[in-house]
Amino acid sequence: MFNIGILQLTQHLDDAVKGFKEGLRNLNVDVTYHYLNADGNIAELPKLADILATKKVDLIFACSTPAAKAAVALTENIPVLFTPVFDPVSVNLVESMNKPNGKATGMSGMVAAPDKLAFIKNILPNAKKIALLYHNADDNSVIEKNNILKNNTTLAIQEIALTSAEDISLLEEKLSPSFDALFLTIGKIMEENFASIVYYTDAQNIPIIASHAPNVSAGALGALVSNHFKLGLACADQAKSILIDKKNPSDIPVGITTEADILLNAFVAENLEIEIPSAVLTSATEIFE
Hints:
It is a single chain. By secondary structure, the protein is of the alpha/beta class. It has helices at about 15-25, 45-55, 65-70, 115-125, 140-150, 170-175, 190, 195-205, 215, 230-245, 265-270, 280-285, and strands at about 1-10, 30-35, 60-65, 80-85, 105-110, 130-135, 155-160, 180-185, 210, 220-225, 260-265, 285-289. Strand 1 (about 1-10), helix 1 and strand 2 (about 30-35) form a beta-alpha-beta unit.
């Protein structure tokens, strides 16, 4: 019997936890779970990580970058598996993807910037100019923004930076019908205030290309996203390697998403009079009506 601590930032990552648990069940690993959720309060995570350490857990499954940072910061030498951390190297969780060289490894939630840019052009073939919304105090959001700009070769991109959720009201003056789309990077602010963002884009008839799966059913035109359930399943394999096979996390490469999910909203497309190309429709994992 192994004791595994689950450290979660928000309920939005429940699918990763479900995949992790199902994966370990399928692998016949006998586990008792100790589950703690910060309910979106990042400042609570170090305290919750300390609680898991006092329970003498054999491993911590950390959902989100802040949760992973809190778990890795523990003085106790407890192995840490993380997902869906966007870029674990840039946020100093591992030294490299192939050789983590620490007590943490896991699955990256990153969908490569070239793939996201290709998705935008595939779903909106005539797009020439887009706005890009990001949170300048969110490491992952800034990393994705930089990756998009670095890999872009075909679009005119106008950056719109958010310092806080209150800044979303600035979209009223910053957006205009000249934009063919608004691209949202990953980030807690965009996820939690999505309805407000939709309010401003709807006023200008601008489609949203999102980075969070729940945003598509809530009003985005589409998204290319990693599947959190599948990431959790993959982390279960890594957990078995650590707990059963006695491998060191430092020797287990960080995994990456190889097949991202295409999510589309047909109702939004109809309202905005956008005809989604048939090749995109047939490739979609899910289409919301």
